[in-house]
Amino acid sequence: MSAASAREVRRLAFQALFQLDATGGDEQAAQDWLQSEGETTRAATKAMKLALEAWGVHDEADALMTELSPTWPASRQPAVDRAILRLAYAELVAGKPAVGVVISEAVELAKTFGGERSPKFINALLDSAAKRLAGATTVVRDGEPTA
Predict the structure, then answer these.
(1) In Å, how far are 21, 41, 84, 113, 143 from 30, measured between CA atoms?
(2) Is residue 115 scored above 70 in pLDDT?
(3) Nearest CA among 13, 97, 78, 81 for reference residue 51
(4) Quick one: how many helices (H) and strands (E) in the chain?
(5) How is the chain split into domains, by residue range?
(6) What pLDDT does 1 receive?
(7) Do 125 and 66 touch, CB atoms closer than 8 A?
């Protein structure tokens, strides 16, 4: 898969995951949304698979993000940020693509869809999450990593 198509799959997966979150996990609503956007391509199929994988581990993702950033648990995060973090978490635990790619792509999604502070928050939290998943420990306080 080319970088452009991987990015497109990730963007569609993020949007489907956002729909899953908004509807309490209604898979059909996410599928319907993809179709309403004219997405019936192979990329949409891959995106839905990735979104469902991320939705399947969203409780794990939320728990880790809350542990790393106790002042910004999932319930306080904007829905866009929460979906980006969940998607990136699923990719991190799957081990593909590389950690740097996962974080970079998540930051790009945050720049496109998130608020002004989203890219910095996403970057710091995912850096901490990647380190935690690799065995190191870092905590993010107010969007800033601490040792």
Answers:
(1) 9, 15, 16, 18, 30
(2) yes
(3) 13
(4) 7, 2
(5) 1-52, 57-147
(6) 42
(7) no
26's torsion region: left (phi>0), alpha (psi -120 to 50) or beta?
Answer: beta
The tens digit of pLDDT for each residue in 21-69 reads: 999 999 999 988 888 877 767 888 999 999 999 999 999 999 999 999 9
* CA 52/CA 56 separation, integer angstroms: 6
Task: For 16-25, write each residue's pLDDT tens digit.
Answer: 999 999 999 9
| Structure-block tokens of residue 28 | 């059909």
> DSSP string of 62-128?
HHHHHHH-TTS-GGGS-HHHHHHHHHHHHHHHHT-S-HHHHHHHHHHHHHHHS-TTHHHHHHHHHHH
- Report the CATH superfamily, name and number, of domain 57-147: NusB-like (1.10.940.10)
Sign of torsion, CA 93 120 34 17? Answer: positive
CA dihedral 38, 27, 115, 118 (to 10 degrees): -120
Judged by DSSP in three states, 48 sits in: helix
